[in-house]
Specification:
heterodimer; A: alpha/beta; 9-stranded mixed sheet; globular; B: 396 residues; alpha/beta; 2 domains; 7-stranded parallel sheet
Amino acid sequence: MRQGYEGIVVTAPVTVPYERYSIHGAHWWIGRALHGLLRAAGLKPADLDGACLSSFTLGADTAVGLTQHFGLSPRWLDHIPMGGAAGVVALRRAARAVQAGDASIVACVAGDTNAPDSFRHTVAGFSRFAIDASVPYGSGGPNAAFALLTDAYMRTYGATREDFGRICVAQRANACQFPPALLRQPLSLEQYLSARMVSDPIALFDCVMPCAGAEAVLVMHETTARDLGLAYAHLRGAIERHNAYPDDPVQLRGGWAMDCAELYAQAATTPAGIGLLQTYDDYPVIVALQLEGLGFCAAGEAKDFIRAHDLRLEGDFPHNSSGGQLSAGQAGAAGGYIGLTDAVRQLIRAPLGPQIPGLQRALVSGFGMINYDRGLCSGAVILEAA
Amino acid sequence: MIPSRTPRNPTLLPQAALAPPALRSRQATGLAVAAAQGRFMLQVCDDCGHTCYPPREACNSCLGANLHWRDVPPGGTVSAQTTVRISMDPYFRPRTPWRIGTVRLDCGPDAVVHLHPTLAPGDRTRLALKLDKAGQGVIFALPPSDTPDMQTAPALRETTCDPRGRRVLVTDGRTPFGQELARSLIAAGANVFLGLAAPWHPFPGQEALPGTPVTLDLTDSRSTEICAAAIAGRVDIIVNTAGDFRPGHAGLDDARLAMETTYLAAARLTKYFLPALQARGGDGPYAACAWVNVLSIAGLVPDPAYPSASAAHAAALAQIQALRPSLRPLKLITAFVGPLDDQWHQALPPPKVSPAQLASAVITALRNGQEDIAVGDLARHTLALWHDNAAITLRR
């Protein structure tokens, strides 16, 4: 059994409000997020001795270039190009750095910009396998890749579009109470079902809206947070896994199942002990894979779980408190943080919308990088209120 | 079904001659090499026998680096399907809905494929590598065996050059080869313009010429320009059979004549005809689609008995290779021939290429969208030697 995460906390959740299109570059968005961290924690740039960055739209820059850009001199630096798993993986690694004494305060940040047509460039050059073996096949982007997974999942397990629609409709209800969300018009199941097809069986409301934005948190030791007078949440468990089950013909499961027993053991809890589940929701089928992989239901039974539960903030199974990327928008790599920052806000009782009453534990899950035909990165963390 | 050909509105621009995304890794270019030859090849690990896809630099079973392109069994089973209705790419956008799928190949890997309209998840399929309009190799999932209407699927028609309903220029109608090509193309459903240099000089077969004769002397720029002005805008496929196949030592006059009739003839076609074809290269199911050159295999592996012809065909071949990227989305098909069964090869024993053999091979290549074919046993054999080891083959 690997070492636990005792003493590590997450604090200062920052969301730089999203915009559909931005005239600013990714550096600007990341700069706003870092600035937000410093203000929230009452720190100076020199206090950040660790940094961890994720972005798709920095052009030639990596985390290294950004240290000079922002005048930081960290003694621990990481660049995590893992998209939807970025937040979970960043938190896990930053926690290890703090535990090992490599850094005392780590800024974990993800941000991307979005301009008309910039998403197409990100997708067209996403990975070598994508360039060689998926982009030339209709160039449907992630919509087409996830449509293939959704098609196989529905055939295999008998899930319906209504099942996926329930996820999207509940998240829109959450977004209506989350001021920074870009899509805040109520959505009905009828509207979901009658939306135009994009790549069968993926229709309009299964797709996230690319946008510009940034998200960030600070990772430090509990004593440091106390000294700074910061509200925090404990990190109780964290897992990551890459390229799990490579021999499955189509991805009907992610890597969570390989490690989630260890995750719950680290946190000394079970799925029943989770009061808020933040899944990576690009696309709804991936929510189903997470419900199954993280032990909330058996493989293929997500449809029954969704039918049996109310996924809204005020429901019996609060899920994606900010409306997720489906309603808040997908700010590139910040989409890998959106569940994390809002879970921390809920756990420190500083929500931007309604508070989930009596929340003790949140599970934040990440999924990322359709390198070719499936998402390669999966991970999850369990956070607990102080 | 393909819609029948209707006169186009001359006041409208043709649909832009775009190509799908052309960027590939060096390894993935192996797919185009296989597709050009009409073979289904993937990387196979010589160390452990594992078949790898997408193309890569090391085996994903044993991490060995001994990956080589091998013919692999083309069977598979469809795992998933979707119909892309909204594409981000300017080539695909007007061509949606576009069906793709995931296939588990019998040889191991899973592949994202262009999915034939008759296939659904669970179905058995036969995979084929085709050259797309960017000239890159892409995997098509086809019905397990050929069906009568199989080729009419829009995505498949995009990657092939079926002569049915198309207008073809055969450049040299003075030879039995050009005449037989014209006859076979007409039988395959094409309309044919038959080029004739100096038609007032008598030649065999002139009393029963197939197709519409046009005056065209590819050794004469003015003649080529006049012919192009009259018909280039209507030609969808060019089959160039002009070329010097004569034996002889490399005397300067021989050399000059060989270059005129082979290399410079192709250069004139490039200058006067190809721009018009390329402009209509994206124009629906009857888009201009191919330029076929019949070249001697001696252009690839020089033949000591035919030094001038070897050099001239090598020059033409190099020109075609160099032009390929700039002439997309047109296909540049090279039909390598061994000795033709004609007056210049009387001294040679068989096997020699007959007019019917050449015509049949060219039409098959057009239907399959292959860019590299060898016609006849001798050209096939020489090409196989060259593929095995070009350096040794050139020395012998």
